[in-house]
């Protein structure tokens, strides 16, 4: 489409084979957002890294550091998350909650454990 490739490539699925393909397909920065199963390995040609300047970046949780950043974000809580809850059901009606979500009639459903 561009005639020369893109400046950034985002891999959002996760399998090592897809990461390798995304990295091989173009010249620039590949950002990995997807997660493969633990222990999976990605193999890359060293010549791509040394000669072309290609970059492979991982971005877990959008790049935040959960241990230090989440407490700060909680203190700065400004988003009214309660407004996103559109339904509440009891645990006995959990299947109804899934039906509401699957049918697109619910944004977020809270399941009460009473």
From TrEMBL:
Name of the featured protein: Alcohol dehydrogenase superfamily, zinc-type
Subunit structure: Homodimer.
The keyword Zinc belongs to this UniProt entry's keyword annotation: yes
InterPro entries assigned to the protein according to its UniProt record, in alphabetical order: GroES-like_sf (IPR011032), NAD(P)-bd_dom_sf (IPR036291)
One GO process term, biological-process aspect: formaldehyde catabolic process
Molecular functions (GO terms): S-(hydroxymethyl)glutathione dehydrogenase [NAD(P)+] activity; zinc ion binding
Domain of life: Eukaryota
Species whose genome carries this gene: Parasponia andersonii
Keywords: Metal-binding, Zinc
GO CC terms: cytosol
Ranges in coiled-coil conformation: none
């Amino acid at each position: 489409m561009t005639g020369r490739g893109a400046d950034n490539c985002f891999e959002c699925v996760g399998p090592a084979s897809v990461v390798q393909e995304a990295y091989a397909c173009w010249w620039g920065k590949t950002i990995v957002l997807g997660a493969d199963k633990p222990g999976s390995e990605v193999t890359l040609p060293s010549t791509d890294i040394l000669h072309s300047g290609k970059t492979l970046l991982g971005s877990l949780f959008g790049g935040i550091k959960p241990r230090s950043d989440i407490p700060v974000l909680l203190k700065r809580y400004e988003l009214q998350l309660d407004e996103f809850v559109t339904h509440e059901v009891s645990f006995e009606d959990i299947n109804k909650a899934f039906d509401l979500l699957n049918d697109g009639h619910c944004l977020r459903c809270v399941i009460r454990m009473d």
